[in-house]
Amino acid sequence: MTTADVEIESRTVDLGAATAVRADIALGVGELTVAGGAAALLEAEFRYSEPSWRPELTYRVGDDGEGRLKLRQPRESHPRRGGRERNEWDLRLNGDVPLDLRLELGVGRSDLALGGLTLTRLTVAVGVGDATIDLRGAWRQDLEIAVDGGVGKATVLLPAGVGARVEAQGGVGGVKAHGLREVEREGGTSWPRLPFPYRAVYVNDAYGTAPVTLHLAVHSGVGAIVLRAGEA
Predict the structure, then answer these.
(1) Who contacts 63 (Cβ-Cβ below 8 Å, separation ≥6)?
(2) For 99-143, how does the pLDDT look when each residue is reduced to its tens digit (9 = 90+)?
(3) What count of Cα atoms within 13 Å lies in the side-chain half-sphere of residue 193?
(4) Are 125 and 107 in contact (CB under 8 A)?
(5) How far apart are CA 211 and CA 156, in angstroms?
(6) Using CA atoms, how far apart are residues 3 and 49, in angstroms rounded to an integer?
(7) Could you tell me if residue 84 is left (phi over 0), alpha (psi between -120 and 50 degrees) or otherwise beta?
(8) CA dist., res. 194 & res. 190, Å (int)
(9) In 18-138, where do the E strands start and end?
(10) Strands 20-29 and 31-38, how do they pair?
(11) Which among 137, 145, 181 is positioned nearest to 162, based on CA atoms?
């Protein structure tokens, strides 16, 4: 249906016979919300004002039992109305299936509430807009996470009661850590007088004692990456 020149489209992708899934999601321009809670593999609602922005969505299950989900904004689409466009993706993913999630963010805001998912790996490439990566939740197994900062600001929220080790490489924007302690550093001094590049390692209070550990590799670009640990 169309409301005020905005197309509203809902799509559902069933898991099928897959025992694990790799999901590649790329949004060029717009707002992205990702959370768990889907009964199917994916339950999505898209709202877009440009017909050329209709998302491209494919899913198949290989002979090895791995599902491959690909969702992206068409690469040839461009803004046309001087900033008045709307492009909003509201995605809910299944929280039980093992998921290798790879997110490519473009221009706009992203809110990623990922604590309810069964992630086996997470990769986030931040674009021009601001992104919140919320990892708070009860994790059942170790997880490798890569966050590549862009021009915008990325805020990573880490859970309490789960170990966290962050290896950070700072660019122009730098990395700020709240609720973690620095255990290694190569180059630079204390924030905010950090020249770049530099490398630092941070851990939270649960690191080394909790049965589950999140291993993060973060790289700041022009924008900053902010780490916040143990906050409700």
Answers:
(1) none
(2) 999 999 989 999 999 999 999 999 999 988 899 999 999 899 999
(3) 2
(4) no
(5) 21
(6) 9
(7) alpha
(8) 6
(9) 20-29, 31-38, 42-48, 56-61, 66-72, 87-94, 99-107, 110-113, 119-125, 131-134
(10) unpaired
(11) 137
Q: What's phi and psi for 53, nearest 5 deg?
A: -90, 5
Q: What is the DSSP letter of 54?
A: P
Residue 105, amino acid: L
Asked whether the beta carbons of 171 and 197 are under 8 A apart, the reply is yes
CB atoms within 10 A of CB 181: 12
Amino acid found at 89: W
Nearest to 200 by CA among 174, 223, 182: 182
Taking residues 204-219, report their average pLDDT.
Answer: 95
pTM for the model stands at: 0.90
Q: Is 112 left (phi over 0), alpha (psi -120 to 50) or beta?
A: beta
Residue with tokens 């004692």: 209
135, 153, 158: which is closest to 222 by C-alpha?
153
Task: Please state, in angstroms and rounded to a whole number, the distance separating the CA atoms of residues 147 and 225.
Answer: 9
